[in-house]
Amino acid sequence: MIVVRRVLFALSAVLAVMLAACGSPPEPAGPSAAPAGGGTFPVTIPHKFGNTVIPEAPKRVVSLGYTDQDAILALGVVPVAIREFTGNQPSATWPWAQDELQGQQPKVLNGEISPETLAALDPDLIVAVSAGLTQAQYDLFSQIAPTISQPAQFVDYGTPWQDATRMIGTALGRAPAAETLITGLESRFAQVRAQYPVLAGRTVAGTRPSSNDNANFFVWGPQDLRGRFFESLGMPVPPVFADLAKDAFYASLSTEELGKLDTADAVVLITASAAERATFEALPGYAGLKSVREGRFFVFDDQLSAALSFSSVLSLPEALDRIPPEIAKSLGG
User: Fold this and answer.
1) H or E stretch at 70
2) Residues 111-148: pLDDT tens digits?
3) Which domains does the chain show, CATH number per domain?
């Protein structure tokens, strides 16, 4: 609690004291069992900014990533705090994960999260796989508690659900449970691919209104989580959008280029509100898109859009139930 109090008084003082006095925390003499998790500690988690040692089974977990709570909850752990992402759901948790809260109400973290806010939660693990941390943020947060960031091999916000679930499961001492979740969901993807073979090889463009202005719109690339979902169904992102996104998970296009969406066999509009959907549908040229006229343009509601944006072990079953049959029907399957 000394660390917490000092952070709350002055972050600079805390960091000075920690760096000068604490150094690296001593490792336990031997591994300890993780309660109900079947794992042993300490464990080392490699990520974009190095390696994080978790000395013992975490008891106060902060879900700092925008979508990390789903994997944490699926593994039977209720975070002390969850970061708000979209939808303003109770406890920042969508219906597909509400039961996993076990009746608890974690604190909701909104906007930019300060080190003082994190320190006040007294965490023993900060999960930031989908937080898009910078090196500076990681350096600050890891002075408060062991912090795991995104894997080095993926773009920010582009970690596949399998890797995120496996990484978080290991950090929580619940790696076997994570593998069970992964195997079960991958089996479900295989079933859907077999059920809807018409999807194989058909391209899909994902789009949404620009968050900057009405003169542009966004399209995802193959490293985006929504792009990864469709790729898992055998539906790649059109090459033109993959080229535009390059090493990012999305690209921004002028509304004058709206017609490029018709390079895809299917187009999916992902939004966070009815107002955003109305904004996009009012763009010049929208009604004239071939995909709109032929019924191959799909506008998803808030919950289905969020399920795709989370692309988690808990949200993807809903996406698998609702999306493939609708698109397959429009493509003649």
Assistant:
1) helix 69-74
2) 999 999 999 999 999 999 999 999 999 999 999 999 99
3) 2-181 (3.40.50.1980), 196-330 (3.40.50.1980)
